[in-house]
Design a protein that fits this description.
By secondary structure, this protein is an alpha/beta fold. The chain has nine helices and twelve strands. The strands form three sheets. Strands 3, 4, 5, 6, 7, 10, 11 and 12 form an eight-stranded mixed β-sheet that branches. A two-stranded antiparallel sheet has the order 1-2. Strand 3, helix 5 and strand 4 form a beta-alpha-beta unit.
């Protein structure tokens, strides 16, 4: 089996249908079917179960998929590394960011584009676990995330560039704070408000920090909604449904009416944030330069 056949196999495994895989590969269906038959004959195994409407991987096919994906990614990475020896900075830069860190990207990308206009971008948003999987699959090269990073691989798998800590702020409906003219609130005042919290099924670190801070100030927050979307939570705040606590940088991307953002005066409550990438993994020139933008 050669590189070309591995790409054919992975396309079929992804699309679960010969017709769609052939279209994706810009080739006719009969030659692709012949290639699949040839691969199975060479290996002496059946790679796909053809009994249903879709092609599903057999155990042998699943093993090959895992190994082939890793091999193809490493091959493509090696080709990229060799080509970059004599090339300028261009190509596609894959970036991941957790939902609460998306606001940290626009200004950096704007600065980066001024120096490297030939670079284009693919940006993924997700929780720590999804982004860790995308890193491992080489769909992205770096992640901007809240720390500590909660993915299964563990902190030791990543290189981390810490960024300046981000203070938490209270985000409340505009009409809820009676102290007109003040730009601050005390933590204990949040005890009276229905509370909205940012949380996914698996990434819970920031949620737990906020809950702990409330408890340290003597109250249990009245959590009426857990949500994985910053936009949805802010829409609920604007509608007067509840209040929340977010890192201050999150709010720089939103100008929703009906929301008031207040400093929390009686606590030094900070969110740690950083740029992460896999250790011992080749980083493209564009990824290295983009990380440098964060380090400045």
């Amino acid at each position: 089996m050669d590189i070309r056949q591995m790409r054919y196999f992975l396309a079929i495994a992804s699309e679960q249908q010969i017709t769609r895989a052939a279209k994706r590969l810009n080739m006719e269906q009969p030659p692709l079917s012949r290639q699949l038959k040839q691969m199975e004959e060479q290996l002496g195994v059946t790679l796909f179960d053809r009994s249903g409407k879709r092609l599903t991987l057999t155990p042998a096919g699943e093993l090959l998929r895992q190994k082939a994906e890793r091999f193809i990614h490493e091959f493509d990475e090696t080709m990229k590394e060799v080509q970059e020896l004599d090339e300028g900075i261009k190509g596609v830069l894959g970036i991941g960011a957790v939902v609460s860190c998306i606001s940290l990207l626009p200004s950096r990308i704007e600065r980066f584009r001024k120096s490297y206009p030939e670079v284009t971008y693919k940006i993924w948003e997700g929780d720590h676990f999804l982004l860790a999987d995308l890193l491992e699959r080489r769909n992205i090269e770096l992640v901007v995330a809240r720390l500590p990073y909660e993915a299964d691989a563990g902190q030791e798998s990543y290189s981390v560039l810490p960024l300046p800590s981000d203070p938490f702020v209270a985000v409340i409906p505009a009409g809820w704070h009676s102290n007109a003219g003040t730009e601050a609130i005390q933590m204990k005042e949040l005890a009276d408000f229905p509370f909205l919290t940012l949380k996914t099924d698996r990434t819970v670190g920031m949620h737990e920090r906020v809950i702990k801070e409330c408890r340290d100030h003597g109250f249990e927050p009245q959590v009426i909604c857990e949500c994985s979307s910053v936009t949805i939570i802010l829409s609920l705040v604007a509608a007067g449904i509840g209040a929340t606590v977010f890192p201050k940088s999150v709010m720089s991307s939103f100008t929703l009416l009906g929301i008031k953002v207040l400093a929390i005066s009686d606590t030094d409550f900070q969110s740690d944030v950083g740029v992460l990438w896999l250790k011992d993994r080749y980083l493209s020139k564009s990824a290295r330069r983009f990380i440098d933008i964060f380090a400045e």
